[in-house]
């Protein structure tokens, strides 16, 4: 038997933080690609430490629903899963190229395929583009538009910015949007000044966050000038400094995100090709906006 375990941060304060994890797990569960699909959290139940005990399968694919490689993916999760032979060098990563490692936990008789985070997988670029399609309602969006990929950014973890820049560069190479920029909350270039970095009148802003919360629903909209008070909401698009800002909210809420989870498992050896095809078909493209 084979199982998929999706591990995410979760939150004691924001009930919606875990919603994308459950949604993507449900999407994958419906494909029947795995005998079991489970969720595990740092700040909710079941915890990282206990989640493998909820699984009957003897072969488990663990996929972190995190954006960047760093403290949680390289230290916390392996420690809590009791993967004592884990070594970050097993991923042979430059900060955005994590692969997978096959290990044995010390407390349960299982083989664990520990995968890199979803946020650094190349398929995430497709999800960002799909997010732009979804917020504009235009499956062909790109011509005449700028795209801002927004991350938290932090001087404490250089990989936080690397993931954002990686996807901005990949999408720029598609030549779909007139301009593509990587912007950040806590380092330069800052999303507060989003209109300073684009000539395009229309700018789609996609935050590379797993779930909507304080940053995506309060900080970023106010910082960009979409609204003076997030509690009053904002227009989509919103007029700011002579531009139209199409703000999408967290990329992790996009249904196509389930595909990235499956792609991570596939890279580790899971036979999920049919499930990937089904998820891509069922999550579909955006519907054209009404004239």
From TrEMBL:
Biological processes per GO annotation: cobalamin biosynthetic process
GO molecular function: lyase activity; metal ion binding
Gene3D superfamilies, per the entry: 3.40.50.1400
Highest taxon above the source species: Archaea
SUPFAM superfamilies: Chelatase (SSF53800)
Keyword terms of this UniProt record: Cobalamin biosynthesis, Cobalt, Lyase, Metal-binding
Pfam family, one: CbiX
Protein name: Cobalamin (Vitamin B12) biosynthesis CbiX protein
Species the sequence originates in: Halosimplex carlsbadense 2-9-1
């Amino acid at each position: 038997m084979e199982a998929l375990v999706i591990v995410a941060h979760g939150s004691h304060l924001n009930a919606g933080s875990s919603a994308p994890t459950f949604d993507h797990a449900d999407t994958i569960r419906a494909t029947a690609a795995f005998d079991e699909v489970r969720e595990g959290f740092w700040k909710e139940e079941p915890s990282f430490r206990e989640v493998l005990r909820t699984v009957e399968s003897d072969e488990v694919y663990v996929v972190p629903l995190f954006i960047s490689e760093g403290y949680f993916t390289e230290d916390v999760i392996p420690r809590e899963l009791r993967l004592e032979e884990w070594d970050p060098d097993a991923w042979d990563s430059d900060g955005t190229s994590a692969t997978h490692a096959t290990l044995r936990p010390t407390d349960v008789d299982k083989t664990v395929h520990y995968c890199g985070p979803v946020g650094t997988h190349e398929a995430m670029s497709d999800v960002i583009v799909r997010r732009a399609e979804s917020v504009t309602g235009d499956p062909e969006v790109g011509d005449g538009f700028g795209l801002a990929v927004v991350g938290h950014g932090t001087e404490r973890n250089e990989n936080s910015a690397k993931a954002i820049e990686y996807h901005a560069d990949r999408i720029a190479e598609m030549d779909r949007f007139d301009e593509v920029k990587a912007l950040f909350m806590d380092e330069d270039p800052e999303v507060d000044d989003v209109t300073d970095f684009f000539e395009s009148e229309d700018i789609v802003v996609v935050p590379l966050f797993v779930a909507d919360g304080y940053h995506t629903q309060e900080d970023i909209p106010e910082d960009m000038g979409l609204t003076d008070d997030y509690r009053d909401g904002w227009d989509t698009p919103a007029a700011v400094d002579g531009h139209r800002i199409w703000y999408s909210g967290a990329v992790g809420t996009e249904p196509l995100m389930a595909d990235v989870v499956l792609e991570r498992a596939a890279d580790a050896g899971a036979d999920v090709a049919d499930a990937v095809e089904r998820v891509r078909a069922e999550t579909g493209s955006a519907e054209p906006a009404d004239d």
